[in-house]
Each structure stands twice: as structure tokens, then as C-alpha cells.
Design goal:
Layout lengths: L1 E2 L7 E6 L4 E6 L8 H8 L7 E6 L5 H9 L3 E7 L2 H11 L11 E5 L6 H6 L7 E6 L4 E2 L8 H7 E2 L3 H12 E11 L4 H8 L3 E10 L8 E8 L6 E2 L3 E2 L10 H7 L19
Parallel strand pairs: 4-5, 4-7, 5-6, 7-10, 8-9, 11-13, 11-14
Antiparallel strand pairs: 1-2, 2-3, 10-12, 11-12
Helix pairs in contact: 1-2, 6-7
């Protein structure tokens, strides 16, 4: 990822995937996307036509990264904040993203909506083959930021994973895939929320360096699967002697490869 000089409104135009797409982001407020979003996007590994929902999309980085790497992906960016949804729309409309724009759409909606209220926003039952999410990850009791948008993007509630994964299950096709990135301490909440909704859960701990504790976890699951949970080999972002990405982490972050599931799907889901 690289950043260009912000304009007078305090925005930056950030290049991802070695410049294959760009994202407009607020410089001084809200959550700014980076490596987490790119790793999340790498979890979508389906070939051919596919529908993807990016829940809590922010300015749209993860969803755009999926569209950038997979030419058959149609991606819906779902964001509650009116300001960040506007950034997502403006990002899609950038001239630099013209080659992706027809496969991208934005829905301004609260991920926690249920039933008819959710459907009315355009989040229809059983309509997406993949759902990805990067939910708020800070405990509500942690020290908060004075930036209201950033606080909303980072602070999670006690039932966050239950409500978000409930919606993910509702809108995912049978046999479809849920993918998310979170902090390792949320593992128990994630497993509980997946419950009987998503099985075949695979988890990968992400470590900044081989000698550092994990700071993130990648999770995938298949709707309706009965397969057991699996912990995969850890993913290291950097070596012991510097800040440069290791080759695999760099490939995942820049759209040169996908992070394929070990078990795979029970049912292949495609969109005609």
C-alpha cells in the first residue's frame, strides 16, 4: 500500500495491489484500511463468477481488493456510516478504478439489522457466495479515541460477533464461505457465534515476526458444513531483522495470491 499527498479536505488517495486500485480515505478521522483489509480479501479464493459482500466495508479497501484480484467477482460494500459509505462510493467512482467499477456497489446499512429491515436495505437471504468482514476489535472498556468515527469503527459490543455472523449466515448461500479477520482474544466469541451456522472453521494466527505474539487471526467457515475446526500454520508478516514483508505476506497483501482453505468447500457456489 502507498499513500499520496492529502488534498485540502484532509483525504488521502491510497494505492493498493501495486497501484491496481485506489481508495479515498479520511486522513484525520475514521478507520484507515491497510494490511488487515488486504489479508481479509486474500481469503476469497473462488474462481469464476462469484458474489461477495463486504460487511463494515469502510471506504471499501477489502472489497475492492477482492474485485482487483478476481475478475469474476461482483462485490457489494456494506457500510453503516453515511460518511464512510460516501467514501466507498467515491472510491468506486475514481478514474483509477474504472476497470472495476461495474462490478462494485455500495449499500448504506447497519450490519446488525434483522428480518425485513435488513432485507429492505438490499441484503437478501441466501444471495452471496462469500461474506467477508473486519468487525470492530477493541473492547468497549479499552481506552477510546476522541475521534468519534474511529471509536465506532474500533469499539465492539458484547454481542458483536453474534449479530454480525447472524447477518452473514442469513445472506450467505448454502455452502458459501464466511471470512473474517479479528484479534486472537475473540476466538471463543467467533466460534460460539458460528455455532451451527458455519462449520469447517479454519483459523490462522498472524504474527508480526516469528518472535512476536499473534496480533490478528484469520477465520473462514462454510455455511452448513459439519467439518471440524482446524488451526493452521501461523502466518508471519515480517522477518526477525526488519520491517519488509516476507514473500508470502507480500504476495497476499498485494493481490498476487489467495489464501486457500485447507479443507475446501463441501459445495461449490457459483453465480451465472
Amino acid at each position: 500500500m502507498s499513500s499520496e499527498k492529502p488534498d485540502a479536505r484532509g483525504e488521502t488517495l491510497d494505492a493498493f495491489h501495486r497501484g491496481n486500485f485506489h481508495v479515498l480515505q479520511p486522513k484525520g478521522e475514521g478507520h484507515r484500511s491497510g494490511v488487515d483489509a488486504m489479508l481479509l480479501a486474500s481469503l476469497v479464493a473462488e474462481e469464476g463468477p462469484i458474489t461477495v459482500a463486504d460487511l463494515g466495508a469502510g471506504a471499501g479497501a477489502a472489497g475492492l481488493a477482492v474485485a482487483s484480484r478476481l475478475p469474476g467477482a461482483k462485490v457489494t460494500l456494506v457500510e453503516r456510516s453515511a460518511l464512510m459509505a460516501d467514501y466507498a462510493r467515491r472510491s468506486v467512482a475514481l478514474a483509477e478504478n474504472a476497470h472495476l467499477a461495474e462490478r462494485l456497489s455500495v449499500i448504506e446499512a447497519d450490519v446488525t439489522l434483522t428480518g425485513r429491515a435488513r432485507v429492505a436495505t438490499g441484503l437478501i437471504d441466501d444471495s452471496f457466495a462469500h461474506v467477508i468482514m473486519n468487525p470492530p476489535f477493541n473492547n468497549a472498556g479499552d481506552r477510546t479515541t476522541p475521534d468519534r468515527l474511529k471509536a465506532e469503527a474500533h469499539a465492539m459490543t458484547d454481542d458483536l460477533f453474534e449479530t454480525w455472523i447472524r447477518t452473514a449466515c442469513a445472506i450467505t448461500m448454502p455452502g458459501g464461505q464466511l471470512s473474517l479477520i479479528a484479534r486472537p482474544e475473540s476466538v471463543s466469541d467467533i466460534v460460539a457465534a458460528c455455532g451451527k451456522r458455519f462449520g469447517g472453521i479454519e483459523m490462522t494466527l498472524i504474527h508480526p515476526r516469528p518472535d512476536a505474539d499473534a496480533t490478528r487471526i484469520l477465520v473462514t467457515g462454510i455455511k452448513g458444513s459439519k467439518a471440524r475446526l482446524a488451526f493452521r500454520a501461523p502466518l508471519f508478516l515480517h522477518g526477525e531483522d526488519g520491517h519488509a514483508f516476507l514473500e508470502r505476506a507480500d504476495d497476499l497483501s498485494n493481490g498476487r495470491m489467495a489464501y486457500h482453505r485447507r479443507i475446501g468447500r463441501q459445495t461449490r457456489v457459483t453465480v451465472i
